[in-house]
Protein backbone atom coordinates (compact mmCIF):
# COMPACT_ATOMS: atom_id res chain seq x y z
CA UNK A 1 0.00 0.00 0.00
CA UNK A 2 0.88 3.68 0.10
CA UNK A 3 2.06 5.33 3.31
CA UNK A 4 -0.35 7.99 4.53
CA UNK A 5 -0.28 10.55 7.28
CA UNK A 6 -3.13 12.62 8.67
CA UNK A 7 -3.26 15.57 11.00
CA UNK A 8 -6.42 16.84 12.61
CA UNK A 9 -6.50 20.29 14.13
CA UNK A 10 -8.90 21.53 16.79
CA UNK A 11 -12.64 21.06 16.10
CA UNK A 12 -13.14 24.77 15.35
CA UNK A 13 -10.97 24.54 12.25
CA UNK A 14 -9.90 21.32 10.66
CA UNK A 15 -6.99 20.70 8.34
CA UNK A 16 -6.48 17.29 6.79
CA UNK A 17 -3.22 16.60 5.01
CA UNK A 18 -2.77 13.43 3.01
CA UNK A 19 0.48 12.48 1.37
CA UNK A 20 0.92 9.57 -0.98
CA UNK A 21 4.02 8.23 -2.62
CA UNK A 22 3.26 5.16 -4.72
CA UNK A 23 6.07 2.63 -4.56
CA UNK A 24 4.90 0.69 -7.60
CA UNK A 25 2.73 1.18 -10.63
CA UNK A 26 2.89 3.43 -13.67
CA UNK A 27 2.72 6.66 -11.67
CA UNK A 28 5.47 6.92 -9.05
CA UNK A 29 5.17 10.69 -8.52
CA UNK A 30 4.17 11.72 -5.02
CA UNK A 31 0.95 13.60 -4.46
CA UNK A 32 -0.16 15.89 -1.66
CA UNK A 33 -3.78 16.71 -0.86
CA UNK A 34 -4.71 19.42 1.62
CA UNK A 35 -8.29 20.03 2.70
CA UNK A 36 -9.21 22.96 4.92
CA UNK A 37 -12.45 23.65 6.76
CA UNK A 38 -13.07 26.58 9.08
CA UNK A 39 -16.22 27.72 10.85
CA UNK A 40 -15.96 31.46 10.29
CA UNK A 41 -19.32 32.61 11.64
CA UNK A 42 -21.75 31.01 14.07
CA UNK A 43 -24.32 33.16 15.81
CA UNK A 44 -28.09 32.99 16.40
CA UNK A 45 -28.47 29.85 14.31
CA UNK A 46 -26.62 31.35 11.35
CA UNK A 47 -23.30 29.87 10.41
CA UNK A 48 -20.84 30.20 7.56
CA UNK A 49 -18.06 27.84 6.63
CA UNK A 50 -14.92 28.42 4.62
CA UNK A 51 -13.62 25.60 2.50
CA UNK A 52 -10.30 25.28 0.74
CA UNK A 53 -8.49 22.59 -1.13
CA UNK A 54 -5.08 22.08 -2.58
CA UNK A 55 -3.78 19.25 -4.70
CA UNK A 56 -0.09 19.05 -5.54
CA UNK A 57 1.18 16.54 -8.06
CA UNK A 58 4.75 17.33 -9.11
CA UNK A 59 5.77 16.52 -12.62
CA UNK A 60 2.35 16.92 -14.22
UniProtKB/TrEMBL annotation:
It comes from the Eukaryota. This is Hymenoptaecin. It comes from Bombus maxillosus italicus. Residues 1-30 are annotated as: Disordered.
